[in-house]
Specification:
single chain; about 325 residues; alpha+beta; Structural Genomics Hypothetical 15.5 Kd Protein In mrcA-pckA Intergenic Region, Chain A; Pseudouridine synthase; 2 domains; twelve-stranded mixed beta sheet; four-stranded antiparallel beta sheet; 16 strands
Amino acid sequence: MTNSKPYCVPTELAGQTLAAVVRAQLPGSSWSQVAKQIERSAVRVNQVACLDAARRMKVGDLVEIGQTAAKLTNWSEQVRLLHVDHHLAVVEKPTGLLTERRPEERNWSARRKAIHPTLDEVLPNLLADSRTPRRGQNRNVPRVILVHRLDRDTSGVLVVARTTQASLGLTHQFRQHTAQRVYRVVVVGHPGTQTIQSRFVRDRGDGLRGSVEAAPVGKDAITHVRELERIGPYSVIECRLETGRTNQIRIHLAERDCLVCGDVKYNRRLDGSPFTDDSQAPRLALHAMELEFVHPISQQAMKFLSPCPADLEHFILRLRQTTHATSS
């Protein structure tokens, strides 16, 4: 049972389970056959293997049904520690790793969680391994407290707290918008340099998060955009977040007719027409490259940089080469 062509979940199937969507793509398959296909990690949702047959699909989710089980990633080898002290840790998150587990997945068995871990589940053991316990000393696994998040397919730098005191201090900085976050993004279109401000709601009318015009409704979302380079129909831009709403950069750009390359979720304009993305991006072209905050205990100013990863650097280089060849 296979359907190698990725399937984008349409509006009429939004809210259906993954099993129902997969079965619709495999005519003649029984529910038990579909369940086995999902259980052996042969089904991917938004480029990541998914074992949850009951997961509710959203508009724009990309479902791929493979013939063989997807290769599982050792995420512990992909996460990089940039700074560790008693109160906090700063890390580089790779693309494809959820920051924290969805509420509907929190009751999964330990074995199932181990197959598809999240950053907050990977980090405690990494932090424990970063210390060298003295002989006879117990190896305590430190806790982590999330104070902000990155989307699954976004790579880059983020900070986690390790004590309640640090958590309160960092959370206050993010709420007051004093922590600085800068992202490198590649988009279809030319947004120029501008500040985008709107009010976000969970459902803007098409089942997705987005902006509404009614001022009393929703929460403020502010993104500062700076265009760095134009490559034919594409742009390399820098986005600085003043607020940190879920999917904020992707939504704000899409609502300004600029699709983040590789985005399979916000890939339609407000009028419902699809974007054309011929970039062949290896994944979501969004990277958290800079994080600046004040250490909540020592009050020391801290700044961390995460260079653009190799896959996105190669992607940008390929766009330049393709555009140059086309224009020559």
